[in-house]
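Bit of a strange request maybe. I'm writing a small parser for structure token strings and I need a real example to test against, not something I typed by hand. Could someone generate the tokens for this chain?
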Amino acid sequence: MRDDTRDYRRLFIDDIPLMDVRAPVEFGKGAFPAASNLPLMNDEERQAVGIMYKQQGQDCAIALGQQLVSGERRDARIAAWANFARQHPEGYLYCFRGGLRSQIAQQWLREAGVQYPRVLGGYKSLRNYLIQQIDQALGQCAFVLVGGLTGSGKTALLAELDNSLDLEGLAHHRGSSFGKHATPQPAQIDFENALAVELLKKRARGMRQFALEEEGRTVGSCFLPAALYQNMQHYPLVWLEDSFENRVQRILEDYVIDLAGEFTTLHGQEAGLCLFAQRLRASLAKIIKRLGHENYRRLATLMDDALSVQLRDGGVEHHRAWIEGLLRDYYDPMYTYQRRGKAARIAFSGDRSAVADYLRACAART
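Reply from user aminoacidic:
Good idea to test on real output. This should exercise your parser:
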């Protein structure tokens, strides 16, 4: 049998499959990219055992747990664990602290003829390790931000670079009022864990400088780690430039064509387009105060006209009108004002090719 492990670094760098035997509610609050939830107890069972523990102590809580998870229920959970172990012979199991639940799962598997190792310290130690990785990277590595007007292609540029950190990709959000996808964002802890694993893997490949998009305190509902956000206020900034026409086209593709495609894939053509239209209108309504009521009514009318055409015959070209207005009257003035305040930090500006070359040269010098 392979030994239990504390080699957290290898687990994350090599994407070792992990069997998380915590309850679903715990898994939903935070897990790891390579983890699968195969709980020892479901949420209701865990709650009952927790109450018993508080009222009558550990022994009574264990007895209740054994009573609740017995017979066919116990057999089904062992079978699921054994199946995972057969599919992932290189994997490990864990619970919250690497204690009683993972020991029970390991024992029951052993009794079924399956030897499977545990992660010592469990979820808590793994999570603390990843938090340390972010802190260490911030202290030991160099970072450069990529800024630019809305729609200038910052995300696409970063995708071309080996040393980039795609915060919006990790947060599953495009970063603006219109940035929500058709599917939900990850939990906050999942976002932080994914960022830490990304940093860990790239540092293991020798990278010491990272390029990332300039962001606010949040990317949708995901908060940037506080230390990262604070440091981002001082990192050098590279400004990506692109034509107005290209930016309109990119926003049309991202926020109209692609987003409508996400909704129709999930919900079918008719229902998906209706949900897409609701999302687009709601996104515009979120910035009504910043737009002003007159601008909002004008853009909302243009959006409604475009949606009517799209719902009727699938055409998307009419969306350009409200996108152009939104850029000229809202996003461009706001970003231009913000750029003036950051002028001293702008180390370079140029088009996509020039910025990519500059960032690669910076990484090579680090």
